[in-house]
From TrEMBL:
InterPro entries: ATPase_dyneun-rel_AAA, CbbQ/NirQ/NorQ/GpvN, CbbQ_C, P-loop_NTPase. Residues 39-173 form the ATPase dynein-related AAA domain. Residues 186-270 form the CbbQ/NirQ/NorQ C-terminal domain. The keyword Transmembrane does not apply. It comes from the Bacteria. Keywords: ATP-binding, Nucleotide-binding. The lineage of its organism: Bacteria, Pseudomonadati, Pseudomonadota, Alphaproteobacteria, Rhodobacterales. The keyword ATP-binding applies. It comes from Litorivita pollutaquae. GO terms for molecular function: ATP binding; ATP hydrolysis activity. Belongs to the CbbQ/NirQ/NorQ/GpvN family. This is AAA family ATPase. It holds the Pfam family CbbQ_C. Gene3D superfamilies: P-loop containing nucleotide triphosphate hydrolases.
Length: 272
């Protein structure tokens, strides 16, 4: 496994802050957590803006950001580091969590419950007053540098009982609940991100609301704000509305032919 494919690094700087439109007081809560060296857990559905929010806040605070996309094969060693053979010598190479601890950066674990169970054990000493990362393989105990912050996210509505955070882990974090924005706010976000006029975005957002109402019935997940932006971007680029919706808001939601036909009927009802 090549961890570089699952890790991104962003340098700080408020001038480079990605666009994010707050829904409530999440910015103030995050800033307060950062000022008190507290870890934060972001909870909410896929595509509602959790990752964009963290990138925005890292730039706003002027801190480097390491983002790790968690998956079934992600182990504690992938986060902490390992010995590698370089030029005939065996050398220790820090993982993204260790680099963030040393540098005073933000480490963001996206969909943390997808990682192997040994990952959460590693996080515990960093999420209490110790703020310490033990490296068993090197014998080091690294005190978190000023500015280090641990942020994790997951989708509680999607995870099953075998993939959830234990209460002993959840209670080490402040938690902020995310959801899809109210309709007027979502129209503003999609219009800004896609370049499509708000009056043309409005029916796409209305359709998304109806699709989200089907979650847990015909659909496992509702349509994300991200997918609405994809559809709006295609339309802004000249694609026919019905084709853009099918490609961006129907096909990604299901493979079942009968369900897709039902969703397309819903599109016709909304757009005529």
């Amino acid at each position: 496994m090549q961890m570089k494919d699952a890790i991104t690094m962003q340098t700080g700087g408020a001038a480079k802050a990605p666009f994010y439109l707050p829904q409530g007081d999440e910015v103030a809560v995050f800033e307060a957590a950062a000022s008190h060296d507290l870890p934060v857990l972001l909870k909410g559905p896929t595509g509602c803006g959790k990752t964009r929010f963290v990138a925005h806040m890292a730039a706003r605070l002027g801190r480097p950001l390491y983002t790790v996309a968690c998956h079934d094969d992600l182990s504690a060693a992938d986060l902490i580091g390992r010995y590698l053979l370089k030029g005939g010598e065996t050398v220790w190479v820090d993982g993204p969590l260790t680099r963030a601890v040393r540098e005073g950066a933000i480490c963001y674990l996206d969909e943390v419950v997808e990682a192997r169970k040994d990952v959460t054990v590693v996080l515990h000493p960093l999420t209490d007053d110790r703020r310490m990362l033990p490296l068993d393989r090197t014998g080091e105990e690294i005190a978190a540098a000023p500015g280090f912050m641990l942020v994790a996210s997951y989708n509680p509505g999607y995870q099953n009982i075998l993939k959830t955070l234990k209460p002993s882990t959840r209670q080490r974090f402040l938690a902020v609940e995310f959801d899809f924005p109210p309709q007027a706010l979502e129209i503003d976000v999609v219009a800004r991100e896609s370049g499509l006029a708000p009056d043309r975005v409005q029916p796409l957002v209305r359709l998304a609301g109806k699709l989200r109402d089907m979650k847990g019935q015909d659909l496992e997940e509702g349509v994300s704000t991200r997918l609405i932006i994809y559809a709006a971007s295609l339309i802004a680029g000249g694609m026919q509305v019905d084709r853009a919706i099918q490609a961006a808001m129907i096909e990604p939601l299901t493979d079942d032919a009968d369900t897709k036909r039902g969703l397309l009927d819903l599109v016709t009802a909304v757009f005529g």
